[in-house]
Amino acid sequence: MGINYVLKRLAIMVPIFFLVVTLVFFMIRFAPGGPFSSEKTVSAAILKNLEAKYHMDEPLLSQYVRYWKDLFRGDLGPSFKHANRTVNEIIAEALPISLELGLLALTWAVLIGVSAGGLAALKPNTVYDYVPMAFSILGICLPTFVVGPVLVLVFGLWLQWLPVAGWETWQDRVLPSLTLGFAYAAYISRLTRGGLIEIRGQEFIRTARAKGLSESEIVIKHSLRGGLLPVVSYLGPALAGIITGALVTETIFNIPGLGRFFIESAVNRDYTVVMGTSLLYFTLIFICNFLVDIIYAILDPRVKYE
Amino acid sequence: MNNSLWTDALYRLKKNKLALLGASFLVLELLIFFLIPLIVRLGYEAQDLELTFAAPSLAHWFGTDSLGRDLFSRVIFGGRVSLTVGLLASLVSAIVGVIYGSLSGFLGGKIDNLMMRIVDILYALPFIFLVIILMVYFGRNFILLFVALGLTQWLTMARIVRGQVLSLRHKEFVEAANSLGLKQRDIVLKHLIPNTLGPVIVYLTLTVPSVILEEAFLSYLGLGIQAPLASWGTLIKEGVDVMDLAPWTLFFPAFFLSATLFSLNFLGDGLRDALDPKGARD
Q1: Cα B225 from Cα A302, distance rounded (Å)
Q2: What's the gap in Å between the CA of A2 and the closest CA on chain B?
Q3: ipTM of the complex as predicted
Q4: Would you list the DSSP string of A111-129?
Q5: Chain A residues whose beta carbon lies within 8 Å of the beta carbon of residue B120
Q6: CA distance to partner chain B, nearest, from residue A68 (Å)
Q7: Is 70 exceeded by the pLDDT of residue A182?
Q8: Which end of chain A has fewer surrounding CB within 10 Å, N or C?
């Protein structure tokens, strides 16, 4: 993999970014209603001042140009609804929370997925295979907004082991991250099982066995690297899915992350916050896919990117 | 069209138990959902405030909700909405994908290259965010919902069809059609597209559950189907709000949604294996 590939990937980011900014900007501006339309008691004069303050009295095109200029300076503008707060401040507060949730979910997904899939692959067609695989079917078919509430009901309300909302202590983190990671753990366990079973039939594994290596050495040194390739290539879509899944998870568990601000600002027509959070989401998903492709190329020497 | 391909495929599909289970569940579900309302008047909106949160019983098989509405009727009604949105949106995605993909593959060369670069770029967009913004700002209407959801799903279909058309383009039967002087348009419509039918059906079957899931996701967030209409997503949301009081209001819609997704996925996988036995399984 050369520097050319990296540059090419970054170059494709430019039109995407331009497209997203333009699309979202005009979509929300052309829609009926505005950030101040719900405040009925506001007099015409105050409304005019408000609009002047946020440059809403200017022609749309010059607002668009202004947005780009601010964006280049890294300024996402003031929030229309949260008085005295900028979008940068809101993101600085919400992003770490969402990142933590996402990374915890990913950790669960890989940890549970790889160990369950590994177990199933070591003893295929036994109870160690059937039980995890049955669970994985459940995990794939049950959407986040079913898994989450059921976990809340069982562990939060009936057994009262864990808190059901908030984001203060470590206990608060358990249910949301499990909820978000569950589906991906299920998928990863199937990929791991498939990958490992396929690798077992390969000749270099037979050679390793003929050399007299122990079964655990074979698995750790030889099978896992090749067998986990499908898992690695799945991490890109998984990360993107976790980022979108966090929208629902944050709603269910009342977590003050990015997703909640995105939905809330979309509903409230808080233009700058919608723009800022969507741009951040697009960038995050792009970076995730990019990183995964690079990791893939490092793990699999056969992959050559032009 | 080659008959033995479809006979073989059917034979292989019949041996796949999970796919058969999925197919039978879907047939049964469709029959119940679309026939029962013809026979019995379902009071999915009828409220009975004397009888809120009634547990499942003979009178109300799935119990009642916070307004005393019969959950059985609501699950059926919501299911019809969910399935309709799923089917219509998948159809939209198939139409766009097939047209785009077959054009790209057939025209080839620079145009093909450009069209596929555009698909690559669009792939990087997480469409669900755009759909959310679209739904919030342009009203939550039914037509917009399934068109928007369909437009998020056509990219893979376009890639599949393009690949098929590319490989078919230089086959003898296309050359024969060319040398017989058939119009280019007729070659695409009558020879190329019908031969891509297998993969299109497979992918269509797999698109339906992802659209149903997306719709449920939007409705759960309160951005999809609006009252008095209901879909499984809105029913699950209602169920979640009162699940400690009346767990059945969560259980029944969640069960039907999950079972439907399960069935469609396994039927789609089964069809893929049946139509293309050499094809990759994950």
Answers
A1: 47
A2: 20
A3: 0.76
A4: HHHHHHHHHHHHSTTSHHH
A5: 12
A6: 20
A7: yes
A8: C
